[in-house]
Every structure is written in C-alpha cells, then in structure tokens.
Amino acid sequence: MFPGLGGAATTTSGGPGAEPAPAKDGESLINLCDMLDKPMCYARNENNSYPLANLFIGDSRLGMQSDSDEQLIIHLAFQEFVKVKSIKFSEWNMGSNPDMNPVTVHIHVNRNNLGFEDIEDVDPAQTITLTAADLQETSDPIDLYYVKFQRVKSLTFFIEDNAGADVTAIGGLRIMGRTVATTNMNDFKKQG
After folding, report:
1. CA–CA separation, 133 vs 124, rounded Å?
2. pTM for the whole structure
3. What digits encode the pLDDT tens for the residues 86-101?
4. What share of the chain is helix, strand, coil (3-state, %, to 5)?
5. Rounded distance between C-alpha atoms, residue 77 and residue 124, angstroms
6. Burial classification of residue 178, based on how many CB atoms lie within 10 Å of its CB (0-12 exposed, 13-18 middle, 19 or more buried)
7. Alpha helix positions (H), the chain
C-alpha cells in the first residue's frame, strides 16, 4: 500500500492482542436532553414554582417561567461531548398566553458561569428570533449553524425578550443531535 514499506497494510480483527475498533459518532439523531448532567444545569431568574426541570417533563402547562422580568438564562451541561443539530422550544400552556413567548434567544456554546452582568458582553454562537409559529408543538425544530455546534459540552440560552408580557414562559425544550466519538481509556492495555 505504501511504496518502500514492505507490502500492503493489514488489519487485525478480534483476537487477544487486537486493538479496539475506533469509536464512531452517533449514527442517528437523538433527543440530547436525555444526556444532560442535571446537577450541572441551572437557570437564572427562574420562578421557583415553574423551574428549569419542568421543561423536560413533556407537559407545556408545567413549563418554565422567568421571575422578576422577561430575561432568562438557561445553562445546560451534557454528560459528554455532543453535536447539536437543532433545538425546539415549545409554547407555554399550549399557547394560552402568546405574550409570554420568548422572541430573541442567544445561544452560547461551552461557556460556563455566565450571568446577567456579563452575558451581553460575550458574542453568542448563534442568535435566533422565534415566532409564534416556531413555538407550536407541530412546527419543525430550528436548525443551528453546523460548524459551531460540533463539540458541545454545554449550552447557555439567554432569552433577551418576549412578545410583550412582564415574564417569559416556555412550555418545553428539545435538543436534537448526535453523540461524539470519544476515547475510552479503559480500552488501552498497559505496556511493559
């Protein structure tokens, strides 16, 4: 295969001294919310009666609300690196109060400990503007910029404003993507 190196390349398959097969990225899209590192996830300015955990229950009547104004920070940490393809915000309580819907959402990748005092000074990986149609349960997820979401350990959403209410409310959140191939150190054998 390589001239001057003594023949064709060979691969080993199985056997006691064989190397483990290289890891592969996930083949199909999955809901990455199942891969959240829940103790590392948090929200700033959340209403204690409607906390972050409600976003993943699947009932938009229980969703999440901001507390003192319309701004909200949601930080989600994953158990391992992932590739994020799309996100889907759902409307609060099946659209019963459209003024509470989020409108401008800034998405930050791999940024920890962002607060209201510094989040506006950091450039987001992507900013999306949501419409009432985007938030309906039957609408398609919003695709994200492919190159900026390839090796994601955490996402921070800054909801800057809503459709006019005093507080922001979100019925649900889905994050679709794939796992990233990583090295399992347990597959290596000690040499010598």
Report:
1. 24
2. 0.82
3. 999 999 999 999 999 9
4. 15, 35, 50
5. 16
6. middle
7. 132-135
